[in-house]
Amino acid sequence: MTHFTFETTSRPTPADQRKILLEDPKFGRVFTDHMAIIHYSEDKGWHDAKITPRQPLPLDPASTVFHYGQEIFEGMKAYKGRDGKPLLFRPQANAARFAASARRLAMAELPEDLLLDSIRSLLKLDQEWIPTGEGQSLYLRPFMISNEVFLGVKPSHEYLYVLLASPAGAYFSHGCVSVWVTDRYTRAAPGGTGEAKCGGNYASSLVAQMEASANGCDQVLFLDAVEKRYVEEMGGMNIMFVRHDGSVVTPPLNGSILRGVTRDSLLRLGRHMGITMVEEPLVMDEVFAAIEKGDIAEAFACGTAAVVSPIGVFKRESGDVKFGDGNTPGETTMKLRKALESIQRDEAEDPFGWRYRVAL
Predict the structure, then answer these.
(1) Do the beta carbons of residue 188 and residue 256 sit within 8 Å?
(2) Tens digit of pLDDT for each residue in 11-51?
(3) How far apart are CA 12 and CA 306, in angstroms?
(4) How far is CA 263 from CA 139, 249, 251, 258, in A?
(5) Please, are residues 88 and 76 in contact by the beta-carbon 8 Å criterion?
C-alpha cells in the first residue's frame, strides 16, 4: 500500500483572497495551493507518493513525453455535500478509463485505489477550495506522462502521475452553444486512440476548433474518418439528440468515440426517468434534414466539464439549421441536466450509488 507524505506550502492563499477567487473562477484559470505526485519505475513500481505545493515540474528535455507523446489525463469534479464534506461523482469510472487509456498508450496502469487516495489526500489540504455557487465545482485533473530520459522509440520505463485541482464555474457561460460541423478534419480513426483520453486527440482537434471559431461557432463536431458521413463527437465532449417523440439518440461507441462518464450516466439516468435512450448511427445529412422538418427537436453536448450544454444551431459549408430561436434550451435537455446535477450535488436521491463521499 502506497502512503502519501505531506509537504504543505509555506505561502497558502489567504482566506479573503481565496473567497474573491471563488466568486467567479471561470474554467481552468485558478488552481489550489497543492498537488499530488506519484512516481513509477519498472523496478520499484508506484512509489514516492506526495502532496506538495503546486509548482513547476522538473523534467529533462530528453524525457520521452516530449518526443513520443505518452500522456493521458482525466477530468472529474468535487462538490460539497449537504453535510459540507467533499463529494465526488463516479470517480471509479474515471479511474477505470484512466487505466484503459494507459493500456492503449502502452503506459503503466495506476491502480484505482491509488488514484482515489491521491484525491482524498489532496482534499485533506485543499477542501476549502471547493466552491458552492451555482454551476461551480472543484475540477480535478489527474494526468500521467512518460519521463524516462531516452530518445529511442519504445514504451517508457518511467512515469509521473500528477493531480491538479482547479475551482471552476460553468464551462459555457451562455444559453445555447453553436456547433460547426467539419468535413475537413477528423478526430480519430478505427484502430486509433479515439477511446483513450490522451492529449494527442485534443491537440489534433484544435485546428478544427479554430475553423469553428472562424465560422462564428463555439464548438466543433466531427464526423467519422472513413466515410465522413456519420456523427461521432465534439471537440471535447459527446453529443446527444432529442427526437420529436421525446426519445434521445446518441452515436454508439465504436472504438473511436470516447466512453464519456457523463454520456453513460445520462443513458442510464434517462432510462430510469422513463425516457427512451437509443444508441444508433446518425448520418449528418439526415440529422440536418430531421432538424429542418422538426423530427429532431433538441440537441446537447455532454461531458464532465460541460455537464449538459444545450445546442442552438448547427453550421456547415452547405448551410445552417437551428432549434427555434437558436438560444432557448429544450425541455428534455434541461430535464436531464437538472436530474443529473441534482444527483451530483447531493440535492436528490441517488438510485445508482454514484455519489462517492470522500473520507478525510
Answers:
(1) yes
(2) 999 999 999 999 999 899 999 999 999 999 999 999 999 99
(3) 30
(4) 18, 11, 11, 9
(5) yes
Which amino acid, residue 233? E
Count of Cβ atoms closer than 10 Å to residue 102 Cβ: 20
The answer to whether the CB of 77 falls within 8 A of the CB of 137 is yes
| DSSP H helices in 239-295 | 261-272, 284-293
Place of cell 452515436: 251
pLDDT of amino acid 172: 64
Q: What is the DSSP string of 310-359?
A: EEEEEEETTEEEESTTSSS--HHHHHHHHHHHHHHTTSS--TT--EEE--
Average pLDDT on 313-332 reads 95
Is residue 100 within 8 Å of 255, Cβ to Cβ?
no
Question: Tell me: the pLDDT tens digits for 155-171?
Answer: 999 999 999 999 998 77
CA distances, 13 to each of 29, 53, 101, 169, 304 (Å) = 15, 11, 34, 19, 27
Exposure string for 106-140, b = 16+ CB within 10 A, e = fewer: ebbbbebebbbbbbbbbbebbbebbbeeeebbbbb
pLDDT (tens digit, 9 = 90+) per residue, 268-302?
A: 999 999 999 999 999 999 999 999 999 999 999 99
Local structure of residue 152 (DSSP, 8 states):
S
Phi then psi for residue 272, to 5 deg, are -65, -30
pLDDT of residue 1: 59
Q: How many CB atoms sit inside 10 A of residue 12's CB?
A: 16
Any idea what DSSP says for residue 128?
A: G
DSSP one-letter code for 12: P
Q: Which sign, positive or negative, has the C-alpha torsion 83, 89, 92, 98?
A: negative
> Taking Cα atoms as reference points, which of 150, 218, 151, 227 lies closest to residue 189?
227
Query: Which residue type is seen at 226?
Result: V
Residue 51 burial (CB count, 10 A): 21
| Separation of alpha carbons 251 and 249, rounded Å | 7
